[in-house]
Amino acid sequence: MKRTLVALLMMIAPFSLAKDISVGKTGDYQTIQEAVNVAEKGDRILIGEGTFNEEVTIKPNTPMTIEGSGIENTIVKGYNRNIFTSAVFYGEEATSVTLRNMTLTNAWSGAFFRNCNEITMEYILSVGNGENNAYFKGSKNTLVNHCTMDGTSIFGETNCGVDYENLGDILCTTNTLINSIIVNHKNIGVEFPVEQKYYDHNLLISFNNFHNNSLSSDWRTTATLIGNISDDPLFVDVYKGKYELDKEPITIKSTYRSPCIDSGTSDGYTHDGYSDMGCFNKYGKIEENSAVSGWWYYE
């Protein structure tokens, strides 16, 4: 019996040791990179308010969550959007990493994941990067959910919103882009892998708003396209960094001005029962609906 209990405790221990690490003026660490360097499997890095001028390299094979305080409150700013392959967040052989609830700007790529697995980006604003707002090269099982990728703004033009690309014989496959807003890119909204010998990438591109950019450079891949729209998303004020959706009513029935409101899937509920593309509220952050535990809504 004692031996069985010891074995059980040994199995539980690695999961129970996961911890929160704070970053900011009064946090455990002053920079995100310091926190990432000490993080262990399952840790959550909580970034406070402010602008963090750094380009963060994520450790390989170390599952973690890196979470900001809102797109208006936590801004991670790279050094130079014209430096080739620089990224606000860069991961190589990273596994089970989540980026959530912040703005990524001023690098060659907002996020660049190379040969990674199970990467999640959600409630992210990626804007003002030089080449890509998100770049997945030879990465599998990625999820981009409730993000906004803006290609033109006061920050300058970005070529591509989300770029999926193979890495030699390593396929960029089984990836999902959902409930997001991909707008105003100089060339391409979403770029699929183009190698002729690889046709089946299991890409789900669903319930997104693509506006003022082309959706794809290549249709030979078998992306599943469901429920996408192409209309001006009508943010409140891009030039003041206010990327919440304009919800002024335009009819007596309170149909909102932004076509992105109530146009997503039902995987997260708003106050009126539907999910919104982008899903940022006026404070630039997500909030929990106490009435439905674990669901998120747009305020």
Description:
The protein has about 300 residues and is mainly β. The N and C termini lie far apart (about 55 Å). The chain has two helices and 24 strands.
Brief overview:
This protein has helices at about 1-15, 30-40; strands spanning about 20-25, 45, 50-55, 55-60, 65, 75, 85-90, 95-105, 110-115, 115-125, 130-135, 145, 150, 160-165, 175-180, 180-185, 190, 205, 210, 225, 235, 240-245, 285-290, 295.
Task: Please tag this protein with its features.
disordered C terminus, Pectate Lyase C-like, six-stranded parallel beta sheet, mainly beta, 299 residues, 14-stranded parallel beta sheet, single chain
Q: Catalogue the unreliable spans.
A: 283-299
- How helical, in percent, are the residues? under 10%
Coarse shape: globular
The CATH class designation is Mainly Beta
Name of the CATH superfamily: Single-stranded right-handed beta-helix, Pectin lyase-like
Q: What kind of sheet is the major sheet? A: 14 strands, parallel
Series of secondary-structure elements, N-terminal to C-terminal: HEHEEEEEEEEEEEEEEEEEEEEEEE
Total domain count: 1
Number of strands: 24
Please specify the SSE layout and strand pairing.
Blueprint (H helix, E strand, L loop, with lengths): L1 H15 L3 E4 L8 H7 L4 E5 L2 E4 L2 E3 L5 E4 L6 E4 L9 E6 L2 E11 L3 E6 L2 E11 L4 E6 L5 E3 L2 E3 L9 E6 L9 E4 L2 E3 L4 E4 L11 E4 L2 E3 L12 E3 L8 E3 L4 E4 L41 E2 L7 E2 L2
Parallel strand pairs: 1-2, 2-5, 3-6, 4-7, 5-8, 6-8, 7-9, 8-10, 9-11, 10-12, 10-13, 11-14, 12-15, 13-16, 14-17, 15-18, 16-19, 18-20
Antiparallel strand pairs: 21-22, 23-24
